[in-house]
Write a structure and sequence with these properties.
Rossmann fold, 30% helix, 7-stranded mixed sheet
């Protein structure tokens, strides 16, 4: 079956390529995709030159949903809505697939979802209800990253969870704080951020706090860092200052450069620093079930939808990435008409 793939050949330059897609496994036609900061780093050329040379040309985007065109197993019907799982695991008896070097991740080393058709194994899709908001559903993958980090935290935390701090007033901070309200309903959730206009959107949080105006004597039990880039250093420093002994610091933010950490105080307080990246099938199933059981979450998550771009041409795709780049908050959704 003829398939057209839309790949980034070099920073800010997309090209079309014709591929052949076999009708085995599950074949999905993308309907709604969502741009991630990782996609932008490739598009803007902000990854190291050797990385760009090794990985491009490549189709971007690893967040998205689509309609089933064909399923060899017969478990899914044509037209079923599914969320696509970008991680492709191989056998690893030691690591979870999302941390294994043997796994492949779409939009990071091999083609993402910007094509007419996507061929996946049957365990790489999760069916979603037809009444799910498609714009929010397009970034379920991002929600799963927060979900798996919170799940890991819940398994290893041994000290009280009375006060949980979330650092970061962007998309991931918003999602993490929102899920914590569901997963840890008895905890007090405090969101720490820089931009008051963003923080005011966190209406579900118990408290918001600007990082330069933290109340005296405020302490937290555990922390979730969702800042990333060079700013993550000051965020982690502040977390270490405010966290109680034996607390857990869950790191979500991505930085292209090494970030210094105050190991002396980590040792003194007996802190646990936990890294979180990507997700696996059980996290997608968990998020879909959480959304089913808590439909009110869609009302909050819709606040993250700031741009909706219809994609009919390569120029539309370029304009969508350019528009997303100047947005300081929220998600750019691609209504994929290709």
């Amino acid at each position: 079956m003829i398939n057209i793939v839309y790949r980034l050949k070099s920073p800010k330059f997309f090209e079309e390529a014709i591929d052949e897609t076999e009708l085995d496994g599950v074949v999905v036609r993308p309907t709604y995709l969502s741009i991630c900061q990782a996609d932008q780093r490739y598009y803007q050329g902000s990854r190291p030159a050797e990385v760009l040379e090794a990985k491009l040309p490549m189709a971007l985007v690893h967040e998205g949903i689509g309609e089933v065109v064909h399923d060899s197993s017969g478990e899914l019907e044509s037209g079923d809505n599914v969320v696509m799982i970008p991680n492709t695991p191989t056998q690893d008896d030691i690591c979870r697939a999302n941390y294994s070097y043997k796994s492949k991740f779409r939009g990071s080393g091999f083609d993402g979802f910007t094509s007419d058709l996507i061929k996946l194994e049957s365990d790489r899709v999760v069916k979603i209800p037809d009444d799910f908001n498609p714009y929010v559903s397009s970034f379920i993958e991002l929600i799963t990253v927060a979900y798996q980090g919170i799940s890991k935290f819940s398994e290893i935390a041994v000290t009280p969870k009375d006060v949980l701090g979330v650092w970061g007033d962007g998309n991931l901070g918003f999602i993490t704080a929102l899920l914590l309200k569901v997963k840890c309903p008895d905890s007090r959730i405090i969101v720490f951020g820089k931009h008051l206009e963003n923080l005011n959107l966190f209406s579900f949080a118990d408290e918001i706090c600007q990082i330069h105006n933290v109340p005296e004597n405020l302490v937290i039990d555990h922390a979730f860092e969702c800042v990333g880039s060079s700013a993550s250093q000051s965020a982690v420093d502040q977390i270490i200052d405010l966290i109680n002994p034996q607390g857990i610091i869950s790191l979500f933010g991505v930085s292209e450069y090494p970030v210094p950490i105050n190991t002396r105080m980590i040792l003194e307080k007996g802190l646990t620093v936990q890294g979180n990246s990507r997700s696996e099938r059980e996290d997608f199933v968990g998020v879909v079930e959480t959304l089913k059981q808590n439909p009110q979450l869609f009302e909050y998550l819709e606040k993250l939808v700031t741009n909706i771009c219809e994609i009919n041409t390569l120029n539309d795709l370029k304009e969508a990435f350019d528009k997303d780049y100047i947005s300081h908050f929220g998600k750019t959704i691609l209504k994929w008409n290709k």
